[in-house]
Amino acid sequence: xPKPLNIIVCGSLVPDPLQTLEPVETPQGPALKNxxxxxxxxxxxxxxxxxxxxxxxxxxxxxQVTLVSMGPAAKLRQLMMTVxxxxxxxxxxxxxxxxxxxxxRATAAGLAKAIKAIPGLDMSSVLLFGGCSSAxxxxxxxxxxxxxxxxxxxxxxxxxxxxxxxxDSFTVLERIEGGSYLKSACKGLPxxxxxxxxxLPEPPxxxxxxxxxxxxxxxxxxxxxAAAPAAGGAKFLKxxxxxxxxxxxxEKDMTEEEIAKELAAWIAE
Length: 269
Description:
With 269 residues, this protein is of the alpha/beta class. Helices cover 29% and strands 25% of the residues. Helix 2 (73-83) runs antiparallel to helix 5 and helix 3 crosses helix 4 (142-149). The termini are far apart.
């Protein structure tokens, strides 16, 4: 019988992608305009990791899922109201920034410190999940830094599929160039997985699951330690919304062939 897994998911809140994000300068450095007022969602890639973790835990009796999240405590509290009904998990919260201007290394150190403080953590049964990218901290290296801090050497990035055999060995499919996959086999745990989109849809809300999760979540938020990841020595000289550029020309008598040739020449340039 396969032994239970300890699945730890790293994921935080990001501004709702439907909002207009405008960078501004503050005494503490660059930030987003009205950041505390922007509606937040669970980072899309981290959400995929959480759903995959919950699905895997359900197939391995006794397995546990822990969501480790760094962000402003008040915003995390609001976010958990929408995430709690989706899957069964425990929360480990770190009260810190969730914007895109914090250093990835410092953020990873804060997450790793919170993970190490989980009572009774057995690293021989740990699967570290997270997104391969992020809608805010899109350095693409945060999960690898967390794995290094925890001493996890087996790291797989941009994974779409993970399948366990009868024991602790498993195979993963990692995205590579050209729309192909790299299939890798790993003989045991611990291991770290940076999820792409996986294959699972967003689970429906389950009020019963939400009611079971919320007491643990509120307790975790009440004792969330503070963290302030530094900028890692980086200095932002300027932040601005990318300028849009549009060139329009009206032509009434061009044939399809002429249009195609002009487009090809423009692409070649």
